[in-house]
Amino acid sequence: xxxxxxxxxxxxxxxxxxxxxxxxxxxxxxxxxxxxxxxxxxxxxxxxxxxxxxxxxxxxxxxxxxxxxxxxxxxxxxxxxxxxxxxxxxxxxxxxxxxxxxxxxxxxxxxxxxxxxxxxxxxxxxxxxxxxxxxxxxxxxxxxxxxxxxxxxxxxxxxxxxxxxxxxxxxxxxxxxxxxxxxxxxxxxxxxxxxxxxxxxxxxxxxxxxxxxxxxxxxxxxxxxxxxxxxxxxxxxxxxxxxxxxxxxxxxxxxxxxxxxxxxxxxxxxxxxxxxxxxxxxxxxxxxxxxxxxxxxxxxxxxxxxxxxxxxxxxxxxxxxxxxxxxxxxxxxxxxxxxxxxxx
Length: 344
Description:
The chain is 65% helix and 2% strand. By secondary structure, the chain is mainly alpha-helical. The relative contact order is 0.05.
């Protein structure tokens, strides 16, 4: 007021009247906000209302952003819907510096806000509240069985159940995700797990029998000779560790992969024991003044035993005789082309 009385300030002072939100707009937006945020108390004064709108939509944006962050490292459904919700919040809040523009934007986006909220609450929000744990378990469960798919395919029921798990948890861009089917995942996992556990039990028994046979082979060739004690002790430790590993492994493929190394270790141990127990060959006498002729280099051919020895079921003595005779004939034929055969 004092400035208005000074002649020197004439023309330098401007007076503007604050524009207020109309009563109709206040009524409409308050009604909309009650429904959208599901609250009864919405401020009646303009400043309080603007503060309410800004705070509530900011909180909502932060909440949706927290949901969006959960997608990192995961393939969850409806991420586009969550990101649309964030964009809606940003659109509304972009007008927060102008009271009237802010309220106008809220009313303009009313339908979009309610549609998005309904879509979110019916699907992805409930998913993160009650379903995400079993979804994650199913995804991890299916992934853990990738190496055993061929074996599981032998069990029609388990194979079908595993395919259904994969189908339910598959998120495809542009396709509507069916949240109601998530409830099927636990029974399906139980079905596959039961079948797989039975396969594991059978496979463990098979691998343990191979361990027994390998240990028997090493002990038989050693025949209790003290000179082979250190080799037997080392071999027994190795096969004891194999037994522990067999009990721990939960993959049929990894259990299958144990056969070859164990058999190779057994063969190496048997060879070492035989070397220790076999007396050294006498050195040939060299006549004085006569040079020893250089040894001729042997031609050695290596063959895989699994190729040479065909897998077969033998039931009678005649079956055994026939099988051994075929092997004998095959080995003799192979030896004709070299000086030595090495069976790996």
